[in-house]
């Protein structure tokens, strides 16, 4: 409208000029009036579209598969956290529902014990949590009994009731798969059926203790256990939904390798698989059906995982060049701690530390497998070096563990006392590890009969008057360790500190396939070692079973078991069983049981804790909302919330 008015105004001006010229004196030529051209209209410029925001993560470990039941690796879960949000996250070793309304317990009515009558020959769970068929003498916890004190053996004739637990899980309403199809309780039941199929290679422990798993309606699924089974962690009994509408055309065996499940799984999380170029990158794009999209999540349109190998140098260079925004803990950053610290001090990166739940430890070969057939010191066996607890404690006093932490790990971790790291609900803050005190170590060795007869601390001590050890036996041991850099360098430091107490040590970096091979051939599970350094993971519940008598691998049990030390102690076994069977909802009683077995472990010293495993990630300096939580299955548990630049506080 503005341009039409302008044209009209210019036309009227031209007419008025002509009339004025006609009325003027006719002398001279009539001037020629040149019309003024209208100005070129100014158009509002179209806004320039913003480039898509991209987050780049460098993984040291490319996933072999993304199928939930096809494998389990840290690299796999780093990706699946973007595809599946939850369904249950772990924060500070506590379960947090993500796509569930809440987790079932007795207070909210989601967990209900139903007393049912059981008969001879019926499959039940006994007082130790083992599957069995009910028979005379079977020790069980009758209905209403949830601890050892009230357990009893069935007499074979009296009517017997056991508790059967049911758990109801309720999904949040309105959840969608990334292809816009509804996500329902039946998808969780479908997942359970896949897990239960013989072709699916997963642990059967929970499946074997499940009586039924059924959908009640679109959002509710009910798990029912075998009579007598009371799991410590109800969250384990919810099966991660899988897309029945998209996968039902495949058999469980086919899903192990089908591209639809192993390379491009449907999810409900913040991102959708877009392109996977093997050995180079895996790109994902934003999921428009993400159930938290109304919160402005995720913050990036594109998420790309780069696979540059596990060497720290390549990945740190990529971070400096802007190829990576985050380098994850599957990259061997521990060997470059000095560089990481220096770059962080210069403001060029940000680092994130987490301790445990894994802990490096030194196991004693207390009772080698050769002793199982009977032992005497003249039988050609390795001498009985470690049955005396004073000797084991002396070794602990003689180990300079802090030197390892200071020199190799730059003080970023600490020496464990019990099974659990700081931040764990079962961590005992008042329990301290034995200090480095070679004088006390030497005193205990002398007391146990290991004498420095030549007065030269550089030579091994020798035995004098020790039961089951020939007099004159030198105190020399072989020290096995893992072949990685940290394993070898830490073993060298610790072996040197043992030598200061008159202990002869030969360090052997052992290939993992030999160290962890099944018995009788494997060094650990065949119980053929003197000392062995490796790591265990604590997890949520007590790992006390690692040193329980019924966990000793031997020829009699087919070399099954994890107590590779051969350690046995009746008091410890009783305390461990109580800790494993204690009900977490019993509060103080539960904490007491966990504390008692940890203190016994420290006193009896079947192994020596060395240091908590250090988990280390690095990122660009302006990344925000990244929260390292070592109890989570991946450090990317909240990948949808990550941001950098202007989006950060």
The CATH topology label of the largest domain is Dipeptide-binding Protein, domain 3
Strand order across the biggest sheet? 12-13-14-1-15-22-16-21-19-20
Q: What would you call the structural class?
A: alpha+beta
Low-pLDDT windows of residues: 1-33
CATH class of the largest domain: Alpha Beta
Q: From the alpha-carbon coordinates, what is the Rg to the nearest angstrom?
A: 34 Å
Strand content: 15-25%
Task: Describe the overall structure.
The protein is an alpha+beta fold and 649 residues long. The chain has three domains: 54-93 and 249-349 and 620-647, D-Maltodextrin-Binding Protein, domain 2 (3-Layer(aba) Sandwich), CATH 3.40.190; 111-170 and 184-237, no CATH class; 356-613, Dipeptide-binding Protein, Domain 3 (Dipeptide-binding Protein, domain 3), CATH 3.10.105. Helices cover 24% and strands 20% of the residues. The protein is built from 16 helices and 24 strands. The chain has helices at 2-23, 74-83, 185-196, 205-208, 244-247, 252-255, 259-262, 312-320, 337-345, 389-398, 401-408, 438-448, 485-499, 512-515, 570-581, 588-604, and strands at residues 54-59, 88-91, 94-97, 111-118, 123-125, 131-133, 139-140, 152-153, 160-170, 210-215, 220-225, 271-277, 281-286, 302-307, 326-327, 350-364, 450-451, 462-463, 476-481, 504-509, 531-537, 607-619, 623-624, 643-644. A ten-stranded mixed β-sheet has the order 12-13-14-1-15-22-16-21-19-20, sandwiched between helices. Strands 4-9-11-10 form a four-stranded antiparallel β-sheet. It has a two-stranded antiparallel ribbon with strand order 2-3. A hairpin with a 5-residue loop joins strand 5 (123-125) and strand 6. Helix 10 packs antiparallel against helix 12 (438-448) and helix 15 (570-581) runs antiparallel to helix 16. The longest helix has 22 residues, at 2-23. The radius of gyration is 34 Å and the shape is globular. 40% of the residues are buried. The model is unreliable at 1-33 (pLDDT under 50).
């Amino acid at each position: 409208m503005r341009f039409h008015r302008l044209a009209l105004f210019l036309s009227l001006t031209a007419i008025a000029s002509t009339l004025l010229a006609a009325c003027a004196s006719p002398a001279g030529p009539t001037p020629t009036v040149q019309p003024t051209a209208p100005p070129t209209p100014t158009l509002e410029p179209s806004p320039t579209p913003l480039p898509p925001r991209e987050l780049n993560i460098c993984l040291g470990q490319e996933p072999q598969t993304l199928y939930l039941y096809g494998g389990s690796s840290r690299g796999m879960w780093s990706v699946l956290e973007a595809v599946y949000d939850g369904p249950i996250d772990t924060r500070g070793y506590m379960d947090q529902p993500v796509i569930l309304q809440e987790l079932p317990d007795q207070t909210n009515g989601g967990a209900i014990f139903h007393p049912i009558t059981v008969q001879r020959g019926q499959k039940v769970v006994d007082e130790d949590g083992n599957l069995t068929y009910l028979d005379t003498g079977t020790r069980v916890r009758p209905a209403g009994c949830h601890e050892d004190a009230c357990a009893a053996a069935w007499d074979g004739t009296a009517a017997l009731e056991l508790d059967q637990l049911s758990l109801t899980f309720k999904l949040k309403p309105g959840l969608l798969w990334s292809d816009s199809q509804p996500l329902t309780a039946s998808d969780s039941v479908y997942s359970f059926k896949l897990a239960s199929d013989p072709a699916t290679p997963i642990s059967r422990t929970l499946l074997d203790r499940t009586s039924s798993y059924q959908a009640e309606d679109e959002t509710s699924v009910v798990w029912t256990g075998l009579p007598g089974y009371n799991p410590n962690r109800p969250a384990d009994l919810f099966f991660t939904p899988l897309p029945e509408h998209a996968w039902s055309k495949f058999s469980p065996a086919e899903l192990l390798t089908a591209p639809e499940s192993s390379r491009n799984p449907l999810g409900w999380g913040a991102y959708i698989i877009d392109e996977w170029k093997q050995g180079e990158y895996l790109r994902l794009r934003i999921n428009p059906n993400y159930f938290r999209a109304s919160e402005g999540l995720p913050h990036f349109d594109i998420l790309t995982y780069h696979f540059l190998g596990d060497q720290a140098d390549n990945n740190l260079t990529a971070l400096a060049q802007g190829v990576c925004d985050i380098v994850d803990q599957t990259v061997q950053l521990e060997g470059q701690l000095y560089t990481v610290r220096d770059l962080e001090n210069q403001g060029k990166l940000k680092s994130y530390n987490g301790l445990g739940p894994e802990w490096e430890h030194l196991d004693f070969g207390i009772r080698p497998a050769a002793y199982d057939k009977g032992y005497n010191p003249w039988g050609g066996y390795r001498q009985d070096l470690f049955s005396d607890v004073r000797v084991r404690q002396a070794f602990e006093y003689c180990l300079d563990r802090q030197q390892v932490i200071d020199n190799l790990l730059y003080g970023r971790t600490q020496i464990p006392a019990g099974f659990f790291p700081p931040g764990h609900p079962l961590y005992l803050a008042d329990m301290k590890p034995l200090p480095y005190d070679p004088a006390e170590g030497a005193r205990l060795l002398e007391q146990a009969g290991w004498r420095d007869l030549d007065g030269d601390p550089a030579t091994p001590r020798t035995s004098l008057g020790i039961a089951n050890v020939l007099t004159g036996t030198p105190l020399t041991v072989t020290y096995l360790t893992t072949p990685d850099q940290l394993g070898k360098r830490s073993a060298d430091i610790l072996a040197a500190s043992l030598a200061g107490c008159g202990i002869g040590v030969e360090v052997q970096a052992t290939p993992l396939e030999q160290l962890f091979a099944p018995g009788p051939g494997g060094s650990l599970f065949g119980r053929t070692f003197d000392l062995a350094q490796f790591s265990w993971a604590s997890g949520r519940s007590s790992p006390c079973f690692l040193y329980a008598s019924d966990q000793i691998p031997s020829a009699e049990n087919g070399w099954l078991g994890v107590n590779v030390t051969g350690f046995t102690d009746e008091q410890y076994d009783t305390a461990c069983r109580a800790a494993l069977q204690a009900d977490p909802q019993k509060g103080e009683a539960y904490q007491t049981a966990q504390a008692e077995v940890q203190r016994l472990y420290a006193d009896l010293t079947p192994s020596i804790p060395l240091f908590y495993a250090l988990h280390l990630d690095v990122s660009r300096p302006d990344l925000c909302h990244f929260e390292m939580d070592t109890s989570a299955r991946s450090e990317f548990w909240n990948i949808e919330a990550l941001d950098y630049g202007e989006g950060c506080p």
